Amino acid sequence: MQDHLLFDRPLVEKYDRPGPRYTSYPTAPQFHTAFAEDDYRAAAERSNRAETPKPLSVYVHIPFCKSLCYYCACNKIITHNTERAAEYLAWLKEEIAVQGALFDEGRRMTQLHLGGGTPTYLSNAQLGELMASLDAAFHFAPPAEREFSLEVDPRTVTPEQIHELHDLGFNRLSFGVQDFDLDVQKAVNRVQSEEDVVALVQAARKAGFESVSVDLIYGLPLQTVASFDATLEKIIALRPDRIATYSYAHLPELFKAQRLIRPEDMPPPERKLELLELTIRRLTAAGYVYIGMDHFALPEDELTLARENGTLQRNFQGYSTHADCDMIGLGITSIGKVGDTYSQNVKETAQYQHRLGEGRLAVFRGYRLSEDDRLRRDVINALMCHNRIDFAAIEAEHGIVFRDYFADALEALQEMADDGLVAIREHEIELLPAGRLMMRNAAMAFDAYLAHSKGRYSRTV
Ligand code: SF4
């Protein structure tokens, strides 16, 4: 396992600086409002006319939550008024119908992801309505080809409901656990019992979910190495197929909820690195493979296999095994990627309803990629998914001479090469085991916008 990832503390400290996560390239700060509804419709039309139209991937954003987790940086609406969710669902159905009409009937929908907020804020009956609307508007791929997932807040569902979710057509789920320690849970206002999580994971296995994932966060208030070690041990014992360990970015000046965390409870920066080191050591010792960017998976998991055979993909939801899809974003704030464009929906429910009420789409900004953007996107994806850039493959696809075109980037990468993090060879660049935690830093060398970007980013490690 250690050939995949090495934790070199001094180098991790040296390269830990703000940088994009590259769920898209160019990143969201480049999106602009000159790209509007008509541009999106044109992109959908072009995607239908492609020689081989891509399969479809749909993301649905459910923004509601019953209580506020103090670390939260998501776009959410905290409310106990379930009427609001019922009203939102009605508009969502409108949007599904309008969007579904833009894409040719023959195009299969192979991927679905429900994120939030809390998708399980909706009752299973409401989720059933949502699935029926999607099924009516899009052509679902046969069950064996589908990757239909949702995020589950363990506080909102029972084991019986987990079985129902499987019956509704979902075959993957991720549980937001974050930390089992009660003091940490209280400090972030997210108390959930270990027993409940264990019962839900067992129910998911029994129900036949193909992939069960658990999300953890390190760097939360009151976390110690010993307390997080105990959480990791319990999670490893549950043996989820995938584990995502996110680094908590404490930015109270940006996210109001985080101001509710007591500053004196925050772990010092060196503790965060200890927690990261611990996480890598424990998970790799337990047989998990580092996929990249906070994600670990069991050796037999599809993500690990895709990483090994070079078919791993990266999208707005993280890593995926599915072939490149056209992605449709539904609900407030959601982002789509259709052909050579990105698009984003409005962020407020009032605007969302207003636009849909006028028969318009909810897209309010976006971006159409230039040839240079597409080239850089391919290079960054190669690094993030395969730890390697094959110059010949990029040259054949884009008609450039890699070493000439990227002379500046190669120069910028030299420091990482001198530090033993990347190898720059005659025909390729490879992220070395000590550099894999710093893949964002390497990707930043190929980002043409970063120097002038006003975006605020989390730290790279
Ligand atoms: S972390 Fe998740 S459940 Fe908690 S407030 Fe944010 S979106 Fe809601």
UniProtKB/TrEMBL annotation:
Instruction: Write out the residues that bind [4Fe-4S] cluster.
Output: C65, C69, C72
Where in or outside the cell is it found? Cytoplasm
Q: Cross-referenced CDD domains, in alphabetical order?
A: Radical_SAM
Q: Has keyword Membrane? A: no
- Cite the EC number: 1.3.98.3
Q: Which GO biological process categories is it annotated with?
A: protoporphyrinogen IX biosynthetic process
Q: Which residues form the Radical SAM core domain?
A: 50-286
> PROSITE patterns per the record?
RADICAL_SAM
Gene3D superfamilies according to UniProt: 1.10.10.920, tm_1862 like domain
Necessary cofactors: [4Fe-4S] cluster
This protein's pathway reads: Porphyrin-containing compound metabolism; protoporphyrin-IX biosynthesis; protoporphyrinogen-IX from coproporphyrinogen-III (AdoMet route): step 1/1
Q: Which GO terms describe its cellular component?
A: cytoplasm
> What Pfam families is this protein classified in?
HemN_C, Radical_SAM
The record's keywords, sorted A to Z, are:
4Fe-4S, Cytoplasm, Iron, Iron-sulfur, Metal-binding, Oxidoreductase, Porphyrin biosynthesis, S-adenosyl-L-methionine
Record-level Gene Ontology MF annotations = 4 iron, 4 sulfur cluster binding; coproporphyrinogen dehydrogenase activity; coproporphyrinogen oxidase activity; metal ion binding
Q: So which domain of life are we looking at?
A: Bacteria
List, alphabetically, the SMART domains matched. Elp3 (SM00729)
> Which reaction(s) are listed as its catalytic activity?
coproporphyrinogen III + 2 S-adenosyl-L-methionine = protoporphyrinogen IX + 2 5'-deoxyadenosine + 2 L-methionine + 2 CO2
Can you tell me which family this protein belongs to? Belongs to the anaerobic coproporphyrinogen-III oxidase family.
Q: Briefly, what is this protein's role?
A: Involved in the heme biosynthesis. Catalyzes the anaerobic oxidative decarboxylation of propionate groups of rings A and B of coproporphyrinogen III to yield the vinyl groups in protoporphyrinogen IX.
**Subunit text:** Monomer.
Q: Which NCBIfam families match?
A: hemN
Write down what this protein is called: Coproporphyrinogen-III oxidase
